[in-house]
Protein backbone atom coordinates (compact mmCIF):
# COMPACT_ATOMS: atom_id res chain seq x y z
CA UNK A 1 0.00 0.00 0.00
CA UNK A 2 2.81 2.48 0.89
CA UNK A 3 4.56 1.72 -2.43
CA UNK A 4 1.38 2.51 -4.34
CA UNK A 5 0.89 5.81 -2.46
CA UNK A 6 4.50 7.00 -2.87
CA UNK A 7 4.31 6.21 -6.60
CA UNK A 8 1.15 8.29 -6.88
CA UNK A 9 2.87 11.16 -5.07
CA UNK A 10 5.82 11.00 -7.51
CA UNK A 11 3.51 11.08 -10.49
CA UNK A 12 1.70 14.16 -9.13
CA UNK A 13 5.02 15.98 -8.51
CA UNK A 14 6.31 15.12 -11.99
CA UNK A 15 3.10 16.42 -13.57
CA UNK A 16 3.37 19.65 -11.58
CA UNK A 17 7.04 20.16 -12.52
CA UNK A 18 6.35 19.52 -16.19
CA UNK A 19 3.52 22.05 -16.07
CA UNK A 20 5.69 24.64 -14.35
CA UNK A 21 8.51 24.02 -16.81
CA UNK A 22 6.10 24.43 -19.69
CA UNK A 23 4.79 27.72 -18.28
CA UNK A 24 8.28 29.01 -17.54
CA UNK A 25 9.52 28.10 -21.00
CA UNK A 26 6.63 29.83 -22.71
CA UNK A 27 6.90 32.85 -20.44
CA UNK A 28 10.66 33.11 -20.97
CA UNK A 29 10.33 32.69 -24.73
CA UNK A 30 7.75 35.49 -24.80
CA UNK A 31 10.10 37.81 -22.92
CA UNK A 32 12.89 36.86 -25.30
CA UNK A 33 10.78 37.85 -28.30
CA UNK A 34 9.83 41.15 -26.75
CA UNK A 35 13.42 41.98 -25.86
CA UNK A 36 14.59 40.94 -29.32
CA UNK A 37 12.15 43.31 -30.86
CA UNK A 38 13.57 46.09 -28.71
CA UNK A 39 17.12 45.22 -30.01
CA UNK A 40 18.59 44.05 -26.72
CA UNK A 41 21.93 42.32 -27.01
CA UNK A 42 21.48 38.53 -27.29
CA UNK A 43 23.83 37.46 -24.46
CA UNK A 44 22.09 39.70 -21.98
CA UNK A 45 18.72 38.38 -23.02
CA UNK A 46 19.86 34.80 -22.49
CA UNK A 47 21.06 35.58 -18.98
CA UNK A 48 17.78 37.26 -18.16
CA UNK A 49 15.77 34.31 -19.53
CA UNK A 50 17.84 31.81 -17.55
CA UNK A 51 17.47 33.85 -14.39
CA UNK A 52 13.73 34.13 -14.85
CA UNK A 53 13.50 30.38 -15.56
CA UNK A 54 15.46 29.52 -12.43
CA UNK A 55 13.30 31.79 -10.30
CA UNK A 56 10.12 30.31 -11.73
CA UNK A 57 11.50 26.76 -11.35
CA UNK A 58 12.32 27.35 -7.68
CA UNK A 59 8.89 28.83 -7.13
CA UNK A 60 7.32 25.91 -9.01
CA UNK A 61 9.19 23.36 -6.95
CA UNK A 62 8.10 25.09 -3.76
CA UNK A 63 4.52 25.20 -4.94
CA UNK A 64 4.71 21.53 -6.01
CA UNK A 65 6.13 20.44 -2.66
CA UNK A 66 3.51 22.44 -0.82
CA UNK A 67 0.73 21.02 -2.97
CA UNK A 68 2.18 17.50 -2.69
CA UNK A 69 2.40 17.75 1.09
CA UNK A 70 -1.13 19.06 1.35
CA UNK A 71 -2.33 16.42 -1.10
CA UNK A 72 -0.63 13.70 0.91
CA UNK A 73 -2.02 14.98 4.22
CA UNK A 74 -5.51 15.64 2.90
CA UNK A 75 -5.91 12.70 0.50
CA UNK A 76 -3.28 9.97 0.58
CA UNK A 77 -2.85 9.49 4.36
CA UNK A 78 -6.60 9.53 5.16
CA UNK A 79 -7.25 7.18 2.23
CA UNK A 80 -4.53 4.82 3.47
CA UNK A 81 -6.02 4.82 7.01
CA UNK A 82 -9.49 4.17 5.63
CA UNK A 83 -8.24 1.25 3.51
CA UNK A 84 -6.39 -0.28 6.46
CA UNK A 85 -9.45 0.16 8.66
CA UNK A 86 -11.66 -1.50 6.03
CA UNK A 87 -9.22 -4.45 5.90
CA UNK A 88 -9.32 -4.77 9.71
CA UNK A 89 -13.12 -4.71 9.64
CA UNK A 90 -13.13 -7.43 6.97
CA UNK A 91 -10.84 -9.56 9.17
CA UNK A 92 -12.89 -8.84 12.30
CA UNK A 93 -9.93 -7.11 13.96
CA UNK A 94 -11.40 -3.57 14.24
CA UNK A 95 -11.57 -2.62 17.93
CA UNK A 96 -11.84 1.19 17.92
CA UNK A 97 -13.24 3.99 15.76
CA UNK A 98 -10.72 6.03 13.76
CA UNK A 99 -10.86 9.84 13.71
CA UNK A 100 -9.42 11.80 10.78
CA UNK A 101 -10.22 15.30 12.12
CA UNK A 102 -11.19 16.49 8.66
CA UNK A 103 -14.34 18.24 7.57
CA UNK A 104 -14.73 16.46 4.26
CA UNK A 105 -16.02 13.27 2.66
CA UNK A 106 -13.19 11.25 4.18
CA UNK A 107 -14.39 12.16 7.66
CA UNK A 108 -17.91 11.06 6.70
CA UNK A 109 -16.55 7.81 5.33
CA UNK A 110 -14.56 7.28 8.54
CA UNK A 111 -17.73 7.84 10.58
CA UNK A 112 -19.58 5.32 8.40
CA UNK A 113 -16.81 2.77 8.94
CA UNK A 114 -17.01 3.51 12.65
CA UNK A 115 -20.73 2.78 12.63
CA UNK A 116 -20.07 -0.47 10.80
CA UNK A 117 -17.45 -1.37 13.41
CA UNK A 118 -19.87 -0.67 16.27
CA UNK A 119 -22.61 -2.65 14.54
CA UNK A 120 -20.33 -5.62 13.98
CA UNK A 121 -19.09 -5.49 17.56
CA UNK A 122 -22.67 -5.42 18.87
CA UNK A 123 -23.60 -8.22 16.50
CA UNK A 124 -20.61 -10.27 17.67
CA UNK A 125 -21.54 -9.67 21.32
CA UNK A 126 -25.14 -10.71 20.68
CA UNK A 127 -24.04 -13.74 18.72
CA UNK A 128 -21.62 -14.78 21.46
CA UNK A 129 -24.32 -14.41 24.10
CA UNK A 130 -26.81 -16.40 22.03
CA UNK A 131 -24.20 -19.03 21.24
CA UNK A 132 -23.34 -19.44 24.93
CA UNK A 133 -27.04 -19.67 25.78
CA UNK A 134 -27.63 -22.23 23.02
CA UNK A 135 -24.61 -24.23 24.16
CA UNK A 136 -25.92 -24.28 27.73
CA UNK A 137 -29.39 -25.29 26.51
CA UNK A 138 -27.85 -28.03 24.39
CA UNK A 139 -25.86 -29.34 27.36
CA UNK A 140 -28.99 -29.39 29.50
CA UNK A 141 -30.92 -31.14 26.71
CA UNK A 142 -28.18 -33.75 26.32
CA UNK A 143 -28.15 -34.41 30.06
CA UNK A 144 -31.92 -34.73 30.08
CA UNK A 145 -31.80 -36.99 27.02
CA UNK A 146 -29.18 -39.21 28.66
CA UNK A 147 -31.26 -39.38 31.82
CA UNK A 148 -34.38 -40.31 29.87
CA UNK A 149 -32.41 -42.86 27.85
CA UNK A 150 -31.14 -44.48 31.05
CA UNK A 151 -34.68 -44.58 32.43
CA UNK A 152 -35.92 -46.03 29.16
CA UNK A 153 -33.22 -48.71 29.23
CA UNK A 154 -34.10 -49.57 32.82
CA UNK A 155 -37.77 -49.76 31.89
CA UNK A 156 -36.96 -51.88 28.85
CA UNK A 157 -34.85 -54.24 30.96
CA UNK A 158 -37.61 -54.56 33.54
CA UNK A 159 -40.17 -55.14 30.80
CA UNK A 160 -37.90 -57.74 29.16
CA UNK A 161 -37.39 -59.48 32.48
CA UNK A 162 -41.14 -59.51 33.00
CA UNK A 163 -41.76 -60.91 29.54
CA UNK A 164 -38.96 -63.42 30.02
CA UNK A 165 -40.30 -64.58 33.37
CA UNK A 166 -43.83 -64.95 31.99
CA UNK A 167 -42.64 -66.75 28.85
CA UNK A 168 -40.31 -69.08 30.73
CA UNK A 169 -42.99 -69.90 33.27
CA UNK A 170 -45.47 -70.68 30.50
CA UNK A 171 -42.98 -72.60 28.36
CA UNK A 172 -41.67 -74.77 31.18
CA UNK A 173 -45.03 -75.21 32.89
CA UNK A 174 -46.55 -77.04 29.92
CA UNK A 175 -43.98 -79.86 29.69
CA UNK A 176 -43.76 -80.08 33.48
CA UNK A 177 -47.52 -80.49 33.68
CA UNK A 178 -47.31 -83.28 31.12
CA UNK A 179 -44.44 -84.96 32.99
CA UNK A 180 -46.39 -84.75 36.25
CA UNK A 181 -49.51 -86.29 34.66
CA UNK A 182 -47.51 -89.12 33.10
CA UNK A 183 -45.69 -89.75 36.36
CA UNK A 184 -49.05 -90.09 38.18
CA UNK A 185 -50.25 -92.56 35.55
CA UNK A 186 -47.09 -94.60 36.00
CA UNK A 187 -47.54 -94.64 39.77
CA UNK A 188 -51.12 -95.82 39.38
CA UNK A 189 -50.07 -98.55 36.93
CA UNK A 190 -47.42 -99.77 39.35
CA UNK A 191 -50.11 -101.05 41.75
CA UNK A 192 -51.67 -103.17 39.01
CA UNK A 193 -50.40 -106.52 37.73
CA UNK A 194 -47.81 -106.02 35.01
CA UNK A 195 -48.39 -107.56 31.60
CA UNK A 196 -47.08 -106.93 28.11
CA UNK A 197 -49.74 -104.32 27.38
CA UNK A 198 -48.86 -102.35 30.51
CA UNK A 199 -45.16 -102.55 29.63
CA UNK A 200 -45.98 -100.94 26.29
CA UNK A 201 -47.86 -98.20 28.13
CA UNK A 202 -44.89 -97.71 30.44
CA UNK A 203 -42.59 -97.32 27.43
CA UNK A 204 -44.96 -94.84 25.81
CA UNK A 205 -45.25 -92.78 28.99
CA UNK A 206 -41.50 -92.83 29.59
CA UNK A 207 -40.88 -91.74 26.01
CA UNK A 208 -43.27 -88.82 26.45
CA UNK A 209 -41.60 -87.90 29.74
CA UNK A 210 -38.21 -87.93 28.03
CA UNK A 211 -39.58 -85.77 25.19
CA UNK A 212 -41.08 -83.19 27.55
CA UNK A 213 -37.92 -83.12 29.64
CA UNK A 214 -35.99 -82.49 26.42
CA UNK A 215 -38.26 -79.54 25.72
CA UNK A 216 -37.39 -78.11 29.12
CA UNK A 217 -33.71 -78.65 28.42
CA UNK A 218 -33.97 -76.85 25.07
CA UNK A 219 -35.69 -73.89 26.71
CA UNK A 220 -32.99 -73.64 29.37
CA UNK A 221 -30.24 -74.00 26.75
CA UNK A 222 -31.65 -71.14 24.67
CA UNK A 223 -31.97 -68.98 27.76
CA UNK A 224 -28.35 -69.62 28.72
CA UNK A 225 -27.20 -68.92 25.17
CA UNK A 226 -29.10 -65.64 25.20
CA UNK A 227 -28.07 -64.56 28.70
CA UNK A 228 -24.37 -65.28 28.33
CA UNK A 229 -22.05 -66.12 25.48
CA UNK A 230 -19.98 -69.22 26.10
CA UNK A 231 -16.29 -68.98 25.35
CA UNK A 232 -15.88 -69.31 21.60
CA UNK A 233 -13.19 -71.55 20.20
CA UNK A 234 -12.30 -70.26 16.74
CA UNK A 235 -10.79 -72.66 14.27
CA UNK A 236 -10.95 -73.37 10.52
CA UNK A 237 -14.46 -74.62 9.72
CA UNK A 238 -15.97 -76.09 6.55
CA UNK A 239 -19.52 -74.73 6.31
CA UNK A 240 -20.52 -77.68 4.14
CA UNK A 241 -19.83 -79.98 7.10
CA UNK A 242 -21.91 -77.75 9.39
CA UNK A 243 -24.79 -77.84 6.89
CA UNK A 244 -24.55 -81.62 6.52
CA UNK A 245 -24.62 -82.10 10.30
CA UNK A 246 -27.68 -79.85 10.65
CA UNK A 247 -29.56 -81.58 7.82
CA UNK A 248 -28.81 -84.98 9.37
CA UNK A 249 -30.36 -83.81 12.63
CA UNK A 250 -33.34 -82.36 10.73
CA UNK A 251 -33.87 -85.42 8.52
CA UNK A 252 -36.56 -87.10 10.66
CA UNK A 253 -38.59 -83.92 11.21
CA UNK A 254 -38.46 -83.06 7.51
CA UNK A 255 -39.83 -86.48 6.59
CA UNK A 256 -42.59 -86.29 9.20
CA UNK A 257 -43.59 -82.82 7.96
CA UNK A 258 -43.43 -84.02 4.34
CA UNK A 259 -40.88 -81.38 3.41
CA UNK A 260 -38.81 -81.98 0.28
CA UNK A 261 -35.11 -81.20 0.73
CA UNK A 262 -32.89 -79.88 -2.07
CA UNK A 263 -29.14 -79.48 -1.49
CA UNK A 264 -26.68 -77.62 -3.69
CA UNK A 265 -23.40 -77.62 -1.79
CA UNK A 266 -20.41 -76.10 -3.56
CA UNK A 267 -17.35 -78.30 -3.92
CA UNK A 268 -14.08 -77.30 -2.24
CA UNK A 269 -15.75 -74.55 -0.25
CA UNK A 270 -13.18 -72.18 1.33
CA UNK A 271 -12.83 -72.44 5.09
CA UNK A 272 -14.15 -69.83 7.50
CA UNK A 273 -13.00 -68.84 10.97
CA UNK A 274 -15.53 -69.99 13.55
CA UNK A 275 -16.79 -72.23 16.31
CA UNK A 276 -18.32 -75.37 14.80
CA UNK A 277 -20.92 -75.95 17.53
CA UNK A 278 -22.09 -72.32 17.55
CA UNK A 279 -22.34 -72.19 13.77
CA UNK A 280 -24.35 -75.41 13.93
CA UNK A 281 -26.65 -73.87 16.55
CA UNK A 282 -27.26 -70.78 14.42
CA UNK A 283 -28.00 -72.74 11.22
CA UNK A 284 -30.25 -75.16 13.13
CA UNK A 285 -32.32 -72.25 14.44
CA UNK A 286 -32.82 -70.96 10.90
CA UNK A 287 -33.61 -74.43 9.51
CA UNK A 288 -36.13 -75.09 12.29
CA UNK A 289 -37.75 -71.72 11.63
CA UNK A 290 -37.98 -72.59 7.92
CA UNK A 291 -39.52 -76.01 8.59
CA UNK A 292 -42.07 -74.55 11.03
CA UNK A 293 -43.15 -72.12 8.30
CA UNK A 294 -44.29 -75.14 6.21
CA UNK A 295 -46.77 -77.01 8.47
CA UNK A 296 -48.44 -78.69 5.47
CA UNK A 297 -45.23 -79.58 3.71
CA UNK A 298 -43.22 -77.78 1.11
CA UNK A 299 -39.70 -77.47 -0.23
CA UNK A 300 -36.55 -76.59 1.72
CA UNK A 301 -33.58 -75.54 -0.38
CA UNK A 302 -30.04 -75.19 0.99
CA UNK A 303 -27.27 -73.73 -1.18
CA UNK A 304 -23.64 -72.96 -0.36
CA UNK A 305 -21.25 -70.90 -2.44
CA UNK A 306 -18.20 -68.67 -2.31
CA UNK A 307 -16.07 -66.14 -4.11
CA UNK A 308 -12.55 -64.88 -3.40
CA UNK A 309 -13.50 -63.21 -0.11
CA UNK A 310 -16.88 -64.51 1.07
CA UNK A 311 -18.64 -67.79 1.83
CA UNK A 312 -22.42 -67.95 2.03
CA UNK A 313 -25.29 -70.27 2.88
CA UNK A 314 -28.76 -69.69 1.45
CA UNK A 315 -31.73 -71.34 3.13
CA UNK A 316 -35.07 -70.90 1.37
CA UNK A 317 -38.52 -72.31 2.07
CA UNK A 318 -41.92 -72.27 0.37
CA UNK A 319 -43.75 -71.45 3.58
CA UNK A 320 -46.22 -68.81 4.62
CA UNK A 321 -43.75 -65.92 4.43
CA UNK A 322 -43.18 -63.08 6.88
CA UNK A 323 -45.24 -59.86 6.84
CA UNK A 324 -43.22 -56.76 5.95
CA UNK A 325 -44.04 -55.10 9.26
CA UNK A 326 -42.48 -58.05 11.11
CA UNK A 327 -39.23 -58.24 9.11
CA UNK A 328 -37.40 -55.53 11.14
CA UNK A 329 -38.21 -57.39 14.38
CA UNK A 330 -37.58 -61.07 13.67
CA UNK A 331 -34.10 -61.00 15.25
CA UNK A 332 -35.27 -59.18 18.38
CA UNK A 333 -35.28 -61.19 21.62
CA UNK A 334 -38.70 -62.58 22.58
CA UNK A 335 -40.28 -61.56 19.28
CA UNK A 336 -42.46 -64.39 17.98
CA UNK A 337 -45.64 -64.84 15.98
CA UNK A 338 -46.17 -68.35 17.32
CA UNK A 339 -48.91 -69.28 19.73
CA UNK A 340 -48.13 -69.25 23.42
CA UNK A 341 -46.31 -72.37 24.44
CA UNK A 342 -44.72 -72.78 20.99
CA UNK A 343 -41.52 -70.84 21.62
CA UNK A 344 -39.83 -67.97 23.42
CA UNK A 345 -38.73 -66.10 20.32
CA UNK A 346 -35.04 -66.55 21.15
CA UNK A 347 -33.89 -68.93 18.41
CA UNK A 348 -33.32 -66.39 15.63
CA UNK A 349 -32.05 -63.81 18.12
CA UNK A 350 -29.37 -66.23 19.34
CA UNK A 351 -28.52 -67.17 15.73
CA UNK A 352 -28.14 -63.50 14.81
CA UNK A 353 -25.80 -62.91 17.76
CA UNK A 354 -23.63 -65.90 16.81
CA UNK A 355 -23.37 -64.78 13.19
CA UNK A 356 -22.43 -61.25 14.26
CA UNK A 357 -19.80 -62.67 16.63
CA UNK A 358 -18.28 -64.52 13.66
CA UNK A 359 -17.90 -61.26 11.65
CA UNK A 360 -20.75 -62.39 9.43
CA UNK A 361 -24.05 -60.91 8.41
CA UNK A 362 -27.49 -62.23 7.61
CA UNK A 363 -29.93 -61.01 4.95
CA UNK A 364 -33.57 -61.95 4.65
CA UNK A 365 -36.15 -61.72 1.87
CA UNK A 366 -39.75 -62.79 2.30
CA UNK A 367 -43.13 -62.56 0.60
CA UNK A 368 -46.46 -63.61 2.02
CA UNK A 369 -47.53 -66.90 0.46
CA UNK A 370 -44.23 -67.29 -1.43
CA UNK A 371 -41.74 -68.15 1.29
CA UNK A 372 -38.58 -66.80 2.85
CA UNK A 373 -34.88 -66.75 1.94
CA UNK A 374 -32.15 -66.44 4.58
CA UNK A 375 -28.65 -65.62 3.33
CA UNK A 376 -25.82 -66.02 5.83
CA UNK A 377 -22.45 -64.59 4.76
CA UNK A 378 -19.02 -65.09 6.36
CA UNK A 379 -15.55 -63.82 5.41
CA UNK A 380 -13.16 -66.38 3.97
CA UNK A 381 -10.34 -67.51 6.25
CA UNK A 382 -7.05 -65.93 5.16
CA UNK A 383 -5.10 -67.93 2.58
CA UNK A 384 -2.45 -69.03 5.09
CA UNK A 385 -5.11 -70.52 7.33
CA UNK A 386 -4.13 -68.43 10.34
CA UNK A 387 -6.75 -67.96 13.08
Provide an overview of this structure.
The structure is a single chain. By secondary structure, the protein is an alpha+beta fold. The chain folds into 3 domains: 2-93, no CATH class; 172-227; 235-379, 2-Layer Sandwich (Heat Shock Protein 90). 65% of the residues lie in helices and 12% in strands. The protein is built from 7 helices and 7 strands. The strands form 2 sheets. It has a 5-stranded mixed sheet with strand order 2-4-5-7-6, covered by helices on one side. A two-stranded antiparallel sheet has the order 1-3. Residues 1-5 have low confidence and may be disordered.
Sequence-ordered SSE layout with sheet pairings:
Elements: H1 2-37, H2 42-91, H3 105-190, H4 196-227, E1 235-237, H5 239-256, E2 259-264, E3 272-274, H6 276-292, E4 298-306, E5 310-317, H7 347-357, E6 361-367, E7 371-379
Parallel strand pairs: 2-4
Antiparallel strand pairs: 1-3, 4-5, 5-7, 6-7
Helix pairs in contact: 1-2, 2-3, 3-4, 5-6, 6-7
**Strand residue percentage:** 5-15%
- Taking Cα atoms only, what radius of gyration do you get, to the nearest Å? 50 Å
The count of β-strands is 7
- Average pLDDT reading: 74
Shape: elongated
What about the largest sheet? 5 strands, mixed
Number of domains: 3
Secondary-structure element series? HHHHEHEEHEEHEE
Q: What is the helix tally?
A: 7
The CATH topology of the largest domain corresponds to: Heat Shock Protein 90
| Low-confidence regions | 1-5
Structural class: alpha+beta
In which range does the helix fraction lie?
A: 55-70%
The appropriate CATH architecture of the largest domain is 2-Layer Sandwich
N- to C-terminal distance? 70 Å
Specify the CATH class of the largest domain: Alpha Beta
In what order do the strands lie side by side in the largest sheet? 2-4-5-7-6
Amino acid sequence: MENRISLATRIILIVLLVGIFYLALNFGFGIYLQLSLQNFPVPGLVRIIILIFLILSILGIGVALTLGTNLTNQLIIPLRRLILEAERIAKGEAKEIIELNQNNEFEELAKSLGKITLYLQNLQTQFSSKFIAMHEDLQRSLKEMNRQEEELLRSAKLASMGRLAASVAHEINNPLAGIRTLAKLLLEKCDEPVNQEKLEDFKKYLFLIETEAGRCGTIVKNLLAFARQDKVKFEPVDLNQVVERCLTLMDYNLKVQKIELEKQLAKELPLVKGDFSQLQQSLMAILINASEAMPRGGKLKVITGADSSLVWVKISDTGTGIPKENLPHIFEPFFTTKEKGKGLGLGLSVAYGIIQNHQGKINIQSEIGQGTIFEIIFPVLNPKGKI
